[in-house]
Structure formats: structure tokens, C-alpha cells
Design goal:
Elements lengths: L8 E9 L5 E10 L4 E5 L6 H9 L6 E5 L8 E4 L11 H11 L4 H14 L15 H13 L5 E5 L7 H18 L2 E6 L2 H7 L2 E5 L6 E6 L8 H4 L2 H22 L1
Parallel strand pairs: 3-7, 3-8, 5-6, 6-7
Antiparallel strand pairs: 1-2, 1-4, 8-9
Helix pairs in contact: 2-3, 2-4, 3-4, 6-8
Length: 255
């Protein structure tokens, strides 16, 4: 995929200080280009999720700016770590929720929800309830809900962290398939070196709190990526490079 020089969103010298004085981010800079899959990688508590919420408008920066050169602000889908589904509503109703809140008509909302469920492989479960689904299936519903509004930018906050390894691998594969089909921009938060390398075009390695961008690593492996890539020497080499950058970021913070 060829990326233009334009950015979808840029964070400039962002600082976030919480009410009790904890500094989550300090001088954090990030540029994300159209159609890019970029991961924020770092230890727990380094401000990854805070940065994502600032991009989403779910929290404000204490200092610094968030710029939208391409005008994508407001055209955002967000996938949380917890699927946060309504237990009393079926799958289709959960996916339609953003459209209902936007007062879309029933026919168009229903059609959009059906398309989103088809994309995540859950077309046959539209009338099921969250309690009837596995953890991986519930996360697919959450992804479908984020996609139903056709967002320009998809933000994902460690969505697969609580899943077993086999399910996580499968969802990583499926997520890349959806990304390649829709060509949306994705910012993905993770603390897994292996996941970040498999998914991303670019990985931003962050320092421990207060979070800053310590290193940016391009993953030049072509798409589609599959099990052959996971077991390749290239994959192992990228994982080693990213792990070493993460260790350096941790060591620098401790020095």
C-alpha cells in the first residue's frame, strides 16, 4: 500500500496530567498517514490508551495540540479492550447502536449492520445475544459496531489482550483482512511485540510513564501476512529489533 505524505492526525508535544498529578504523557508526538496501520507499543501505564483517547476526543490534552489536516475528526470508530456490549440486545442491535444514536433510518441502519457483521464473519449470529457468544465472537461484534459508521480512522485499544493465543492469532488475521479490504487508517494499542510486528506497517515504541515516542520502526514485510510470515526469519528479525527498542526505552527511563 502506498501512503501519501499527508497526515490524518498529528499529535504535537502532547502532555497529559491527571487530577492527582500523574503525568501520563509528556512531549508525545505522532503523525499517522492515510491508510496506515500503526501500533503504539509500550509497557502497561505508559500512556498508550491515554493517547488513543485524546485522539478520539474522549479526553483532552493538558498541553500540546491535536491536528486534523485531512479533516477526519469525528469520523472515528473506537474498539475498547472490553467489548462493552448491551447484554439485553441482540448482536444486530448492538452493531446498529451508533447509527441509532445518529438517528439513521431503520432500513439503512439495518443494511449497514448486516454489512458490518458480514465483514467480521458473524452474519449468521445477528439474532444471537452476547451471552451466547465466545469472547472472540463478542470482540468481533465490537469491531463490527466500530465499522458500521464507515469511519475514516479506526482506534483499537488492546482489543485482543484478554483472549487466548489461538483466538488472538485468528482475530489478528481477520483484522488484517478487513483492513486490506476497507483501506481505513488504524491506530492499534498493544503491549505485545509479536502482535505489533504481525499487524503493523509502523510501530511507535513508547517510554514508560510519562509516555513519549522513543523509536519508530517500519515493518517492511508485504501483505497479506499469514502463518508463513509468523514462522519466517523476517518475522523473527523484526520481533528482535522491536524487542531491543522496547528494552532500550525501558532502560533509558530507568537510568
Amino acid at each position: 500500500m502506498t501512503l501519501s505524505g499527508q497526515t490524518v492526525v498529528s499529535l504535537r508535544n502532547v502532555r497529559k496530567t491527571f487530577e492527582r498529578g500523574t503525568v501520563a504523557l509528556d512531549r508525545f508526538n505522532l503523525d499517522v498517514r492515510p491508510g496506515e496501520f500503526v501500533s503504539l507499543l509500550g509497557p502497561s501505564g505508559c500512556g498508550k490508551s491515554t493517547a488513543l483517547r485524546i485522539v478520539a476526543g474522549l479526553g483532552a490534552a493538558t498541553a500540546g495540540t491535536v491536528e486534523w489536516p485531512g479533516g477526519a475528526a469525528g469520523r472515528i470508530g473506537f474498539v475498547f479492550q472490553d467489548p462493552t456490549l448491551m447484554p439485553w440486545a441482540d448482536v444486530a442491535a448492538n452493531v446498529r447502536l451508533p447509527l441509532n444514536l445518529a438517528h439513521a433510518d431503520d432500513a439503512s441502519a439495518g443494511a449497514a449492520a448486516a454489512r458490518a457483521l458480514e465483514r467480521v464473519g458473524l452474519a449468521d449470529f445477528a439474532r444471537s445475544y452476547p451471552r451466547e457468544l465466545s469472547g472472540g465472537m463478542r470482540m468481533r461484534v465490537s469491531i463490527a459496531r466500530a465499522l458500521v459508521t464507515e469511519p475514516e480512522l479506526l482506534l483499537m485499544d488492546e482489543p485482543f489482550a484478554a483472549l487466548d493465543v489461538i483466538t488472538r492469532f485468528k482475530l489478528n488475521n481477520d483484522l488484517l483482512g478487513v483492513w486490506q479490504e476497507l483501506r481505513r487508517t488504524v491506530i492499534f494499542v498493544t503491549h505485545s511485540v509479536f502482535e505489533s510486528v504481525f499487524l503493523s506497517q509502523r510501530i511507535v515504541v513508547m517510554t514508560p510513564r510519562p509516555g513519549r515516542a522513543f523509536a519508530e520502526i517500519e515493518i517492511g514485510a508485504p501483505y497479506p501476512r499469514d502463518e508463513r510470515f509468523r514462522t519466517s526469519a523476517d518475522y523473527a528479525g523484526y520481533c528482535r529489533q522491536v524487542a531491543e527498542a522496547l528494552q532500550a526505552a525501558m532502560a533509558g527511563a530507568a537510568a
